[in-house]
Amino acid sequence: MAPVVKALQANPSIDSRVCVTGQHREMLDQVLSLFDIHPDVDLNLMQPNQQLAGLTSEILVHLDAIYSKMKPEWILVQGDTTTAMASALGAFYQRIKVGHVEAGLRTFDKWQPFPEEVNRRIISTVADLHFAPTEHSRNNLLHEGIPDESIKVTGNTVVDALNTIVNRPAPVEVTDLLETLGISETRQLILITAHRRENFGEPLEHICQAILQLADAFGDQMRFVYPVHRNPNVSEPVHRLLGHHKSIQLLDPLEYLPLVHLLKNARLVLTDSGGIQEEAVSLGKPTLVLREKTERPEGLESGILKLVGTDPKTIVNAVNSVLNSSDQNFRQGYCNPFGDGQASHRIVDAILDHREFTG
C-alpha cells in the first residue's frame, strides 16, 4: 500500500489520509519509516494473542467514528487482512465507496488461507472498484458476477514497492550476517518464512522436521535463515525444534529492506507467505510454497513457485530436486507476471476516472 499512498499524495486533486489499525504493529512501524509515511490516524488496536472476533469488532467501532468525522468519498483497502475486511465493511455501512487493492485473489477453499480467503471475498461483495493485479484475478471476479467495468487490471503494488528499494544498499545487519554465515558460491543461503495461521500446530512442526533433515543432510554446504514471527504459536515450536542446530540461524522478525536483501542473496526460498511469493517471483528466486493451495497461480505458471505443502518428505524431496536441477525455468530476466511497477499510478487514475464518469 505504501506506493499507493505516495501516488495519492503526489496528486494535487486528491486529499488523502492514512489510517492504520495497528495490526502487525512491529512490521507496520518499520514499513512506515522506510517509506516515510506518517499516519493521520493510528488506532493502535492490536493486543497480544487477540482473537479475530475481538479485533474485527474493535476495528468496526473505531473506524465508524473516523468515517463519520472525515466523511471520505473513498476508502482504499489492500489485500485480505482482518483490517482490510473490517475497514471495507464499515465503509459499506456508511455508504462510502470502497476500492480494493489486490482484488480477486482466490484459492476457492475458505479454510486456506484462513481467514484471508473469506476476508477478501467479503471485500469483493462491497467494493466499488476492484484493482486486480493480474488477468487471473480479473477472471475470478468476473466468474463471481463482478461487473467488468468495475474491474481494473493494474499489476501488483508489491512490485512497485520492491522496485523502489531493491537497489538501495544492503543494510549492515545483512552484510554482517552473510559474512558471519560465510555465504558464498560453495555455501549457499536458504531463506525460510513460515507463520500462517492454518499452519499452526502439527503442520508447522512438520515444516521444522523437514528443515532439520535438510540441515543435517547438507552440512556446511547450506545455511538456513529463518526470521521467526513473534506469535507464540510460531516462535515456541520453531525455537524448540530448530534453535540448536549450527546450520540454522533463527532471527527476530526482519524489516522489509533487510528481508529483500536476504531474498536477493538466497539460493532458494521456503515460505507460506503470500507477499513473499510475489517478491521471490519478481526477483527470479526459486520458491517452495509451504501450503496446499496458492492464490497466486501466476507464480506456478512462471516456474518460479512450486506448491509442496507441509509434509516433511515432500519438502525434502522438492528442495533436493531444485538444488540439483539445471531447470532453466528458475531464472531471472523473464516477464514478471505480477506487473511492471506502475500499479499505483493506474489505481489513482482509475479513481479519478470513476469520479469523472459518475459525477
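the 2nd protein, sequnce then structure:
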Amino acid sequence: MSIETKTHGHLMATESAEAMDVFCRAATQPVDAGKLADAKAIFTIARGSSDAAANVLSYEFMRELSVPVTSLPPSVFSLGKGVCFDGFGALVISQSGASEDLVRAAKGAGINGASVMAITNQTGSAVEAASEATVPIGAGPELAVPATKTVIGSIGAGMALLGGIVPDYKARTAKSVAALKGVSTNHPRAKALQSALLRARNVYVIGRDTGYGAAHEVALKLKECCSLHAEAYSASEVLHGPLQLATNPLMVLILDTGSDRIQDSLDQAEVRFKGVGCDVHRISPTDIDLSDLVPAAAAAVLLAVIYPVILNTALALGLDPDTPETLSKVTQTT
C-alpha cells in the first residue's frame, strides 16, 4: 500500500516504516536484567502509548516469569506518598524520559526499595538518571507527535529485557526476529480497513493477551490521528455491558496475535458482533504470511500493519497526523 508523504503525514509515514527494523534491533540487544530477575512482582510505570507497550509486555512477563506484573499509576508517587516496593521491580517506559510524573515515580520507587529499570529512547534522560539501568529503544529521532517506531521499539526492548532473564525466551525471540526479516507489513486488506474507518463513528478495538495491549495503542492512535471515538476491550470483557453499544452503528477491529489460547475468545466475540450487525474486521500476522511468533512480537507486527492504515485514514479525513491540533510530543503531567 502506498503512503502519501508529500506534506501532511510524511513524518509519521517515514517513522512507522522504520518501526520493524527498530523492533528487530531492540529485541535482540544483549541486556543484563540485574536485580529485576529476582523481583517478586513487577510494576510498570508509563503513560499513553508507552503504557500500551507496557500492557503488551505485562502478559509476556507474567507468562514467562510466573510473577504478577501490573500497571502502577505514576500519581502514587508524583501526587501521593508512594508505596513500599521492597522485593519488587519497577519498569518505567518513557520514550522521551522527560515527563515529570514518571521521573518522580522512578525516583520514588527506588527510594522505597524497588529495583528500577527504564526503557527510553532518549540517552541521558531524567528517567534514565533515576533508574538503576536502562534498555535503550534505539529508534533515533521521532518527530511526529503520534509515536510509532518508539512504541514498537519499546516492546522489542522489553522482550530483550525478558530474554536477559529467561534464556529460552531469548532464543524464541531471535527466531521470531529472523522470521520478520524482509517481510512487508502492507496489509492485503488495507483499503477495506481504511474504508471501514472512514465510515465509522465509533470503533471497538478488541484483543486478548498481548493483543489487548496492542488494542489500547490502536484505539489511542485512532483518537490522536483521526479524531475517531475508539475504545479498547478484552475479547472476554466486551461481551458484558459494552456489547450493548453494538445496537448503535459500530465498527469492530479484532487484533488476533495468532496464539492458540485466544482463538475461542476472539471467535466468540466475532460471532456475537457480526450477529448484531456490526462492521467487523479481523487482522492477524498470518495475513502477511507470518506465524509462530512469540505473542509480544505478534502484537508488534499488528501495530506495524495498522499504523499506515490509520495514517491514510487521517489524510483522507483532511487531518495532519504529524501534528494533531491539541497534542504535543512530550506531555507533561503530574
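Residues 1-5 have pLDDT under 50 and may be disordered. The first strand starts at residue 42 and ends at 45.
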